[in-house]
Amino acid sequence: MILLRSVAKAFRNRSDIVQAIDHIDLNIEPKQIFSLLGPNGAGKTTLIKLLCGLITPDSGQIMINGVDIGRQPHIAKQLIGVVLESAKNVYQYLTVRETLEYFGLLNGLAGAKLSKRICYLTEMFSLQEKISHKVGTLSRGMQQKLAIMIAMVKDPEILILDEPTLGLDVISSLKIRDVIKDLARGKTIILTTHALELAAELSDRIAIINKGRIVHHSTMPELVASYQVNEDSYRIVFRATSAEIESLNRRDPKVEVTELQDSLYQVKAGPEAASFLMRNFNIIELEKENADLESIFIDLLHKSTAQRRDA
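Given the sequence above, the corresponding structure tokens read:
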């Protein structure tokens, strides 16, 4: 559905040139939820704007369902609906109906066809009772729903949601999550989010971007499984004397030892250190810890930054 070939984009920042997107190759399959994760400044928003045609790449090619966005931007843009961060495309003094009519007209819809589309969307998003209310009177969650409805007016094949739950309370976030699940049945969805749990629950595939480069691309189960195999960690509680702890610290300074009480200590260690402790100390508890999504995310970012620095 979306294909990027060696796409690059740089911006001039005073006297410096910042490489926001650094020759990215990416393939997004149709009718999947694809999550784009990364820290602030990683390049997520720039990549979204490139996909929408809001900015043009310095080099490379972007194909939207077989259409080159550089050569046929009007055709490619018709395939995409987008909700940018903070839903800035809603107008406080228009009603819900007026808002949808306005954006429908901008997208070439009118008359009975537009009315039918508005009826369908307000029912789908459970906003029928609010259709004559001004946008400024709606809750933050309802305004976010309306922003997605605006992107959906033209019934695009691809829906891009940039931080759709940002600033929402728990209940509103859960409602938006359910909306995304429903939409995913017939559309390709690109989701950017800092809510790692949301990405883990919804995504068919994820990509992690850091400093303009894709540093990981897989399904969520593949990512977690790879870390369960390669990054095993054990929580070990054991008894030892102070002299034994000093000896352990000299042997392996990377092992962080926490004193729980007199002669009782705890460490988190990899397989080699865990094996050594089991052979040489009185073990009270031993528990294998699977890597959580947040620790995997942070570790990937650290590794990619270190690799780039070494290069």
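The domain at 2-219 is CATH 3.40.50.300 (Rossmann fold). Try to locate this feature in the token string yourself.
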